[in-house]
Write a structure and sequence with these properties.
Helices cover about 50% and strands about 10% of the residues. It has helices at about 5-15, 30-35, 45-50, 65-80, 95-105, 130-140, 160-175, 190-200, 215-220, 230-250, 255, 260-274, and strands spanning about 20, 40-45, 80-85, 110-115, 145-150, 180, 205, 225-230. β6, α8 (about 190-200) and β7 form a beta-alpha-beta unit.
C-alpha cells in the first residue's frame, strides 16, 4: 500500500460517523492483543516506550531511530495502521521535524503526532510561532502520505490557558494538520469549546477531560473523532504486575502466577507471523 493510500485509509477512520478508538500498544504482544480484539488502528506511546527502556518521556532520551524501529514492529505484526506518538518530532528545528516525518513515511507509519513541547523543563512549551512552523514543516514533508496530528501540551505542562490552546490548535489546522490534540482539557465544557473552535478538523482526546473519565459514547457526543489511551493500558498492566509481586512476597504463588497462558500467547504470535 502506498503512503497516499494508507493516508486515505487512516483518515477515513477519523471522518466517518463515530470516528475511532485508537489504543496505544507498548510491545509486540500488546499490539497483537489489541488487533485480535478488533481495533482498526493502534498507536505507539512515547511514555510507555521510554519506560520499557528505563528512560524518561519527553526529555529526548529515546531516539528517532528507536521509536521508528518500535513502530515498525507493531505495524509488521498487526498489519494495522499505526500512529506514532513522536514527542516533539525529535529535533530542535523545523528541518529536523521534516526529517522525522519523512522517515516515518518510509517506515510505513499511517500517522505521526508532533507536540509543541521542547524537552526543556524550564520552558517546556515552545513559542507560538516556532510551534506552528514545526507543524507546517511536518505537513510539507508529509505530502499527503501520512496523517499529521498537531498537539499542544499546554494543560499537561501546567499552562491552563484555554484561549492559547485553541489559538495553537487553530493555527496548526491552518498550517495543514489533519488531526488536533490537547491532552487533558480541564472539563467537558473546555473539550467542547476546542472541538467547536477547530471544526471540521478531527480532534483526538487522551482518555477524557482531566476532571472525569467519560464513556466512549459521551466523548463521541461531544464531537471527539479519535480516542487514544496513551500509556494507560501499559500502566494498567504494570499495576497487575505489582499486585502479583506483592502476592509473591506474601507467599501466595497462585495469585502471583495467574495470567494469560502461553498457549494463548503462541496463538497470537502465530497470527502475527502470518
Amino acid at each position: 500500500m502506498s503512503g497516499s493510500e494508507l493516508y486515505e485509509k487512516f483518515m477515513a477512520l477519523h471522518t466517518r460517523d463515530g470516528g475511532l478508538v485508537m489504543p496505544n500498544a507498548w510491545d509486540g504482544l500488546s499490539a497483537l492483543i489489541l488487533a485480535d480484539a478488533g481495533f482498526e488502528a493502534i498507536a505507539t506511546s512515547s511514555a510507555a516506550l521510554a519506560t520499557t527502556l528505563g528512560r524518561s518521556d519527553g526529555r529526548h532520551e529515546v531516539t528517532r531511530e528507536e521509536h521508528l524501529e518500535h513502530a515498525r514492529l507493531l505495524s509488521g505484526l498487526t498489519g494495522l495502521p499505526v500512529n506514532g506518538d513522536f514527542e516533539d518530532g525529535y529535533g530542535d528545528t523545523p528541518e529536523d521535524v521534516a526529517t522525522t516525518v519523512q522517515a516515518a513515511v518510509k517506515s510505513g507509519l499511517a500517522g505521526i503526532g508532533i507536540e509543541d513541547t521542547s524537552g526543556n523543563p524550564g520552558q517546556p512549551i515552545r513559542d507560538f510561532d516556532k510551534a506552528v512552523n514545526r507543524i507546517r514543516s511536518a505537513v510539507n514533508a508529509a505530502k499527503g502520505r501520512i496523517v499529521i496530528t498537531g498537539r499542544t501540551d499546554n494543560f499537561l505542562q501546567g499552562r491552563p490557558d484555554l484561549d492559547d490552546t485553541i489559538r495553537r490548535l487553530t493555527a496548526f489546522a491552518e498550517a495543514g494538520a489533519d488531526v488536533l490534540h490537547a491532552p487533558y482539557p480541564p472539563d467537558l465544557d473546555a473539550l467542547v469549546a476546542i472541538v467547536t473552535a477547530v471544526a471540521p478538523t478531527p480532534v483526538n482526546v487522551l482518555i477524557s477531560p482531566a476532571d472525569k473519565v467519560l464513556t466512549v459514547a459521551e466523548l463521541r457526543k461531544a464531537g471527539v473523532k479519535r480516542i487514544s489511551t496513551g500509556p494507560a493500558l501499559y500502566t494498567h498492566a504494570m499495576q497487575a504486575l505489582e499486585q502479583a509481586t506483592q502476592a509473591l512476597v506474601a507467599g501466595d504463588l497462585t495469585a502471583a502466577t495467574t495470567g494469560i497462558s502461553f498457549e494463548r500467547i503462541s496463538e497470537l504470535l502465530a497470527r502475527g507471523r502470518n
